[in-house]
Structures are given as C-alpha cells and as structure tokens.
Design a protein that fits this description.
Elements: E1 13-15, E2 18-22, E3 27-32, E4 37-42, H1 55-60, E5 90-95, E6 108-113, E7 120-127, E8 142-144, H2 161-170, H3 175-179, H4 190-199, H5 213-232, H6 250-253, E9 274-278, E10 281-285
Antiparallel strand pairs: 1-2, 2-3, 3-7, 4-6, 5-6, 7-8, 9-10
Helix pairs in contact: 2-5, 4-5
The protein binds zinc ion.
Amino acid sequence: MRQLTGRTFTAAVRRGKFLWLPLDDGAALVAHLGMSGQLLVHGTAVAAAREPGGDAARAFLGDPDAPRVDLTATRAPQPASDPDVRPRHLRVRLRLRPIPGDASTGAVLDLVDQRMFGGLRVVAMVPTADGAPGGAGSPAPLIPADVTHIARDLLDPHLDRPAAVAKMRRSNRAVKTLLMDQGIVSGVGNIYADEGLWAARVHGLRPGKTLGPRVTARLLDATGEVMERALAAGGTSFDALYVDADGAAGFFARSLAVYGRAGQECRRCGTLLRAETIGGRSHVFCPRCQTRPRQARS
Ligand SMILES: [Zn+2]
C-alpha cells in the first residue's frame, strides 16, 4: 500500500460491486465493496461529499459535470486503530493532500464496511476486451487486471444485452441465481433481483432455459428500472445515515414491492407475498403474479 503515497487518483470508476480509483502511474486502487461497503470522503471542502446524490456520489456515479475532489494520498493507509474520529466499521483510511477549505484535521478517504471487509489492493490496469470504457466514471478503455472476469453492470450502456440474454437462456440454473451472476451481468443485488422478478412477473426458481427471449429481456429491463429508481432516491450505497443488511437505504426501502415484505399484500393483486430460499438467499414473490415452476430446482 506504500505504492499510494504521493499518487493522485485520476477518477472513480465502478463496475458492479467493484470500484477502482485509477492512479497517475497507470495502476489502480481497487475496492471490492461487498454487500455493504462504502468509500466516503470526509473533511473536504466539497461539503456535499457525504450527501446522497451529492457531488462525490455524482462523481462516483460517472457524472462528468460533477466537481472533482482532490484525491491525492499523502501517506500510506492507516490501520483502523487510528485514534482520530472515525466512523463505525472503518476498515481503511487514506489521508489526502489538503486543499483550501478542508477541515483542520485534513480530508480523508474512508473505506467503511459493516460486514466482512471486501478488500483493497493496488492492481495494474489492462485494456478492456471490447474496447469500451472499463466502467462508469471514466472514458478510459481500461480495467484492473483482477476485475476482467466481472461482466458489465446492468446499467452500463456498453453491456452486450443480447449476449447476456443468450447466456441466461442457455442455463438450467434458477433465473434469480443467473440474474445475480456477475459473470453474466453485474450490479444486481438481492433486493434488485427480487424487485425485478416481481415487476417482470417471473418466479425466481424458473430455470433460465424455460424463459423466452422477450421475457428475459423484459426481466433485465425491469431490474434495471428498479436500480435506476434506487439511484434517483440517493442510491443504496451512498446513504450515510442508514443502510440495512442488504444495502437498502431507508428511504428507498419504503418504496419496495416485495423485498422485506413477505406475509404482506402484493401491491398489484393483493395476494399475500411468500418467501423461499434460492441459493442461500431469501426470495420474496407473489404466488399469483409469479407462478412457481412445478419441478423447481434451486
Ligand atoms: Zn400479485
């Protein structure tokens, strides 16, 4: 991690749960954000950095007009035993070169994760296989060498959607498992998968092979719409106030159709929602809107 001292981060790029900060020497600091990980900038002149939809969040989401935060590391990362004020679940802290207006304690970039620490490492960048940008946040057609196996995010305009649909329809696995398979499409967490399946009226246990091309495309569209709605509501990753175990921000959680609502009425038909387990995760569905396959396998 001493490789970071004196380096300047040139962007913040995201693909699925991976977020990387390209460095001015051609490598990148790569974070795997897991289910609850967050990268937060504190004590900087950019006051909106922690606000949902604020400047740093916009920058992280790839808004080219968002103001840039000076992300220049001045020292090697501090262990979480740093005696300074620190948020709960702080895993790694980077001190940044001060800019006018910063807090007297100086700006820091914190990696916070309330669950298992997803990891942070410096990795060489390689060209993307399709020549398109590596992820949201930078036009550079580069990707960290250890992220190349991760498929493009469902909201990435460069995602090869017909290829993703074809991959899902070739598989015998449960469609919910396929939707959350980062080798097919990334960025789809448990909440988004359940919400997308309900919106598209598909039961999560349906094998990919039983789905028609239109239904599969509709499922990807519906899931992407839920993700866009979550981002518009402040995202599920940048809410500093409250994040639940699956990453649902408090505000967005109240607009969910099925996630966390087992036993309550379907918002479409009034039938009581049910839950079952798919691949170790809870799947909440409407037994009337989402017909369960007869010989279901998970
Ligand atoms: Zn229903």
